[in-house]
C-alpha cells in the first residue's frame, strides 16, 4: 500500500511517499527557516504564502523520487491539525484537490500522532502498545499509545512546551531561531552543572510538566549578570538549561514507564533530536531494562513521511475523510472526525 503524505502545519512544506507505513520511498522537505529567522520566529502569514508557492513542486518531487505516479498511490494523507490555520489550509486544500481529481481516498492525520508514527519508519519491530514522550515545538506530552489509532495522554505541560523553551532561551542568549539545535551544539562546550536552574514539579500531577519556570530563571540569571557587569558563558548557560530540561523529561518518562509497567519508550517531535536527551534516556532505560527508540533527526522535526506512516494505519483501519475536511488548529490527540 502506497501513501502520499502531505504536511504544512508550520514552517515546513513537505511531501513523502511511504510503503506499508514503514518504508520511506521519498521524503521531501522545503524549510522556510531562512525567512522566519529574519523575524526571530515563525510569521504565520508568511508561512501560508510560502506553502502555496512550494507545495506543488514538493509533491511532484516526492512522487518523482519515489518513482511512482499519482495513479499508483492508494491514498493521500494530510495533516489537518493542530498548527497554524492558514498553513494547514494549504495542505488540506491541496490534498483534497489531488484526491478528488485522481479519485483517491483522503485521510486526515493529527500532526502529533504523525510525530509518534515517525518511530515506525526505522523500527520495524515497534508496535503499540508503548509509552511515547512527545517533545515538539508546541507540545510536551506523555502518551500511552494503545493501538495505532488509540492514544491516552497521561501527562502534559501546564505552560511552555519543551521546544518552545529551547527556542526562547536560545533567543535570550543570542543564538537565534530555531534554538533547539543551536543549544544542543553549544552545550557540548559548556558545563551542565555551572548554574543550577530549577526542575519544576507539579503538585498532584506526577507526569505533568512546566517549563516557564526554568525559562524565567534563565532570563533572571541573564539580567543579574548584566546588572553586575558579569560576562556570561553562552555555553554554560545553554548546557545548564538543557541539563535541567533533560533531567525533567527523562525523569518523568522513566517514572511513568515504571508505574505503568511499560517496557518500551519511544520519543517523538523536534526535541527528540536533542543529543543530551537521547543519551540520558538511553542510560536510564538501559538501567531499568526498558527498550528505547527515537527517529533519526530528519524524522524528529516536521516531515511528511511521518504523516504517511500514520495515514497508512488510519487507512487500513478504514478511516476516510470527506471533502468537507477542514483545518483544525487546536485538534486534540485521539480526536477523530
Ligand atoms: P508541533 O509539532 O508541536 O506542532 P513544531 O512542528 O513547530 O511544533 P517540531 O517540528 O516537532 O515542532 O520541532 C521543532 C522544535 O524542536 C523547535 O522548538 C526546535 O527548537 C526543537 N528542536 C529541534 N532540534 C532540536 C535539538 N537538537 N535539541 C533541542 N530541540 C530541538
Ligand atoms: Mg518547523
Ligand atoms: Fe511538529
TrEMBL record:
Gene3D superfamilies hit by this protein: 3.30.420.40
Determine if Magnesium is one of this entry's keywords: no
The principal localisation class reads cytoplasm
CDD domains membership? ASKHA_NBD_TsaD_bac
Q: What's the cofactor?
A: Fe(2+)
Q: Which reaction does it catalyse?
A: L-threonylcarbamoyladenylate + adenosine(37) in tRNA = N(6)-L-threonylcarbamoyladenosine(37) in tRNA + AMP + H(+)
Task: Indicate which residues the UniProt annotation says bind Fe cation.
Answer: 111, 115, 302
Give the record's cofactor note, including how many are bound.
Answer: Binds 1 Fe(2+) ion per subunit.
| Highest taxon of the lineage | Bacteria
> What's a single GO MF annotation on this record?
tRNA N(6)-L-threonylcarbamoyladenine synthase activity
Q: Which UniProt keywords apply?
A: Acyltransferase, Cytoplasm, Iron, Metal-binding, Transferase, tRNA processing
Q: Where in the cell is it found?
A: Cytoplasm
Q: What is its EC number?
A: 2.3.1.234
Q: Name one Pfam family in it.
A: TsaD
Q: Quote the record's binding site residues for substrate.
A: 134-138, 167, 180, 184, 274
Q: Which family does it belong to?
A: Belongs to the KAE1 / TsaD family.
- What job does this protein perform? Required for the formation of a threonylcarbamoyl group on adenosine at position 37 (t(6)A37) in tRNAs that read codons beginning with adenine. Is involved in the transfer of the threonylcarbamoyl moiety of threonylcarbamoyl-AMP (TC-AMP) to the N6 group of A37, together with TsaE and TsaB. TsaD likely plays a direct catalytic role in this reaction.
Question: What is the protein name for this chain?
Answer: tRNA N6-adenosine threonylcarbamoyltransferase
Tell me the classification of the organism that encodes this protein.
Bacteria, Bacillati, Bacillota, Clostridia, Lachnospirales
Gene that this sequence comes from = tsaD
Amino acid at each position: 500500500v502506497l501513501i502520499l503524505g502531505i504536511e504544512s502545519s508550520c514552517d515546513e512544506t513537505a511531501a513523502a511517499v511511504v510503503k506499508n507505513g514503514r518504508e520511506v520511498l521519498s521524503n521531501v522537505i522545503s524549510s522556510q527557516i531562512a525567512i522566519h529567522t529574519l523575524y526571530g520566529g515563525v510569521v504565520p502569514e508568511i508561512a501560508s504564502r510560502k506553502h502555496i508557492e512550494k507545495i506543488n513542486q514538493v509533491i511532484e518531487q516526492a512522487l518523482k523520487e519515489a518513482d511512482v505516479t499519482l495513479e499508483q498511490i492508494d491514498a493521500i494523507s494530510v495533516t489537518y491539525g493542530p498548527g497554524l490555520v492558514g498553513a494547514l489550509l494549504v495542505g488540506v486544500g491541496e490534498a483534497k484537490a489531488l484526491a478528488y481529481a485522481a479519485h483517491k481516498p483522503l485521510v486526515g492525520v493529527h500532526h502529533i500522532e504523525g510525530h509518534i508514527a515517525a518511530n515506525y519508519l526505522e523500527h520495524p519491530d515497534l508496535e503499540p502498545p508503548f509509552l511515547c514522550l512527545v517533545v515538539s515545538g508546541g507540545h510536551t506530552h506523555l502518551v500511552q499509545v494503545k493501538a495505532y489509532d488509540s492514544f491516552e495522554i497521561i501527562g502534559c505541560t501546564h505552560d511552555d512546551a519543551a521546544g518552545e523553551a529551547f527556542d526562547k532561551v536560545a533567543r535570550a542568549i543570542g543564538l537565534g531561531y530555531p534554538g533547539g539545535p543551536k543549544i544542543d551544539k553549544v552545550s557540548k562546550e559548556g558545563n551542565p552543572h555551572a548554574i543550577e536552574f530549577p526542575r519544576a514539579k507539579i503538585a498532584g500531577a506526577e507526569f505533568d510538566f512546566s517549563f516557564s519556570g526554568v525559562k524565567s530563571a534563565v532570563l533572571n540569571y541573564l539580567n543579574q549578570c548584566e546588572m553586575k557587569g558579569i560576562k556570561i558563558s553562552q555555553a554554560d548557560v545553554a548546557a545548564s538549561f538543557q541539563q535541567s530540561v533533560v533531567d525533567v523529561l527523562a525523569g518523568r518518562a522513566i517514572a511513568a514507564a515504571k508505574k505503568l509497567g511499560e517496557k518500551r519508550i519511544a520519543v517523538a517531535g523536534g526535541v527528540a533530536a536533542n543529543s543530551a536527551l537521547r543519551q540520558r534516556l538511553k542510560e536510564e532505560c538501559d538501567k531499568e531494562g526498558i527498550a528505547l527508540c527515537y527517529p533519526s533527526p530528519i524524522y524528529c522535526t516536521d516531515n511528511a513521511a511521518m504523516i504517511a506512516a500514520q495515514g497508512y494505519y488510519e487507512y487500513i483501519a478504514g478511516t476516510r475523510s470527506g471533502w468537507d475536511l477542514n483545518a483544525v488548529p487546536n485538534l486534540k490527540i485521539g480526536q477523530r472526525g
